[in-house]
Amino acid sequence: MRLLVAEDDPRLCKSLVHILKANQFVVDGVLTGDEALEYAISGEYDGLILDIMMPGMDGIQVLKRLRERHITTPALFLTAKTEVSDRVEGLDAGADDYLPKPFATDELLARVRAMLRRKDTYTPDLLAFDKLTLNRSTYELMYDGRRCGLSGKEFQVLEMLMQRPGGIVSTEQLITHIWGWDASVDTSVVWVHISNLRKKLEAIQAPFCIRFIRGAGYVLEDSHD
User: Fold this and answer.
1) I need a surface site. Which of 33, 63, 143, 195 has the fewest CB within 10 A?
2) Where in the chain is the domain with CATH 1.10.10.10?
3) pLDDT digits (tens, 9 = 90+) for 42-83
4) Which CATH class is domain 2-120?
5) How does pLDDT run across 145-195, given as a tens digit for each residue?
């Protein structure tokens, strides 16, 4: 199994590479997000271990770029940041797991093994509405061979709509499901994501529309109907 480690602290990076090599992994270590992106794109890796806080491009940006290129290599984030919002952002970007610093060697190895097991059993998780397909693993929207990537929130909004094709999903349901029942999110935030999704449906020439029904909510429907 070949791993890529991206950690901006040279001593920690060297230590991680040593630990993983001692446990029979083939490992490449880099110190910046730009290097991580270059290596991950050009090399064949079974898993990525990315520090979030790196100079230049951070770990979340690296993973977003990879997912936009349809590279689905499993990823584990290492971070000293413990806020829930940071974890959510990383998972929205396509990460498989989080490991806060400092961490024990045994826990690191256990998390890496779990990440690699998910790769071995990976099958695309697809949600379809007619010929419109949403890939739940890569956050890609596809129609007739054309595709585009979605942000985490765009994905969650469209997933709810595609799970109820032709059915109405209220703004309140979207906010509660995506941001939480106690979130102070303005309805205009939902509208922005809906607007972005409409543009992306148009970009891949998908004959579907997200229609707003006053006093009720949004519905995904075939624009030919």
Assistant:
1) 195
2) 126-222
3) 868 999 999 988 888 999 899 988 888 878 888 999 887 665
4) alpha beta
5) 898 988 888 988 999 999 888 899 999 999 888 877 666 778 888 999 999
